[in-house]
Amino acid sequence: MIPALALRQQAEEEAARLPALLARAEKLAGTVLLGEHGRRRAGQGDDFWQYRPLQPGDSRRSIDWRRSAKGDSDFVREREWQIAQSVLLWLDGAASMRFSSDKNLPTKAERARLLTLAAAILLIRGGERVGLTGWTLPPRRGQEQVLRLAEAFTTDDPDDYATPEARGMLPHARAIFVSDFLGNLDPVEAALTKAADRGVRGVMLQVLDPAEEAFPFEGRTIFESVGKSVAHETLKAGDLRSRYLDRLAERKARLDTLCRLTGWQYRCHHTNASAQSALLWIYRAMDGGHG
Asked: One Pfam family of this protein, by short name (predicted)?
């Protein structure tokens, strides 16, 4: 059992992270120009959408007489009906995400939390319902939901690697998965396949530390997982570089292929790169574009 004093200190530390994370995410979200994410079609609404010719079955009351007076045909003024899209988030909170190779760089978890929350803020501002995969936090709108998401994102997972949560996938929803994806990829493949079967499309952002991409190690080195469940010592770390880089390239290629086969989009982001550029890619990808 955790002593009460230690538990209180841990709770205070987590609570202190929430406003700081929220402030940074709000600031980052403010750098991206909002677009429209909702699906549009004719129906009940306040905004003008289009004029179209009068068709059999249309009420005479629906005719726009001012537009019709400009020609010989009668026209109907259609309004816009915008259906908010449900967006489901999965953010890896496992121990491997708490790695940083340099004190001047954010951990993968810090960058992932920032990007995921900023994306959620943008989507909610655009009128979308945003929540978590699974059943702990269903998609909702509003600032209160932003606060709930921020609180959920400050929770750490003690395991070294996390498995994507693919339960509770709403049919035809959108999704954002953010992780280093350095664990077993079979659950990732199963999650994307399950999502695709339900018509869910989305984006997969792999967040890596630059050292994980470059493998700048030489001589005697002890490699240990953040959760300390895996350790490996070598006297010639440099001899492992080519094999490591090949394995990493294969992993990234598999992730990219999985996304292409299931209608998702994939991108790898490094913690020493611009957070704004990564957020912009997420936003454009969720809006139907390709970064």
From this structure: DUF58
